[in-house]
Amino acid sequence: MTDLYNSGASGQAYLKKAFNLCGDVKTADDLADLKGWLTGAWGNIVMVEYPYPADFLQHLPAWPVKGVCDNLQQPYWDSPSTLVTQISLAAQAFFNYSNSFSGSCFNTTSEPDTLGADQGWGFQACSEMIMPMCADNKNDMFEVSAWDLDSYVKECAKTYGIVPKPNWIMTNFLGVNVTGATNIIFSNGLLDPWHGGGVLRSYPEQNITAIIIPNGAHHLDLRGHNAADPVDVIAARDMEIGIITQWIADYQREH
Predict the structure, then answer these.
(1) At what angle do helices 149-160 and 118-127 cross, to 10 degrees?
(2) Most buried residue, 79, 152, 179, 189, by most Cβ within 10 Å?
(3) What percent of the chain has pLDDT over 90?
(4) Cα–Cα distance, 153 to 105 (Å, whole number)
């Protein structure tokens, strides 16, 4: 995409047409918005890698990552436009899989939000739990992007009129040091990128149990039963029910 952008007006026009964008790609900020829009799509589609059709973030098929990757199979070394065409088809597999998108073009400064939660999530991330994000293009597939707390603070102040407290979550909940707590289940689906920030070990003496679900996407164990649920997801639910049932029994016995 950078090569096409740098090639001038024709390349920039191709980017707009290939991704069916509402706005032009004429400035560095326009290009950054396009890349950020796509980066968000790749992260979200992995997060909702459910084994059955769902519409949690978008209307998507079962195992939607395959639908994205199927569009990225052809060799692309002949020209940048070939790769961009494949990327645009992959993006369509997320943003408009069921052809239900009601707009005539895509806005790279906002993503479709079927939950109506974007503003609430952004406010919570600014006011309660800052989640540093970065990429180095060595341990991931994304362009280098350093975490910049100062810029994040300024954006929170501009958008919500609040100044984040970077250490609030550590001060109030001690981060991953949960040994002062009791009776918690931390379920972690390994298909969900968010598991990297989860509690992945148990503390039996505090009745804190970490359940690892290799085939689990974002809170799949907390969704309703589906015939396509992987065996480890079903086992995780059974374990959760058993643990919570025991907590209730222990409380009733003691009180």
Answers:
(1) 120
(2) 189
(3) 58
(4) 31
Q: What global pTM score does this model have?
A: 0.85
- Crossing angle of helices 28-47 and 80-95, in 10° steps, is 50
d(CA 141, CA 13): 25
Amino acid at 123: F
Interval 16-74: pLDDT, tens: 999 999 999 999 999 999 999 999 899 889 999 999 999 888 889 999 999 888 888 87
Instruction: Show the tokens assigned to 58.
Output: 């978008």
Distance CA 203, CA 209 (A): 6
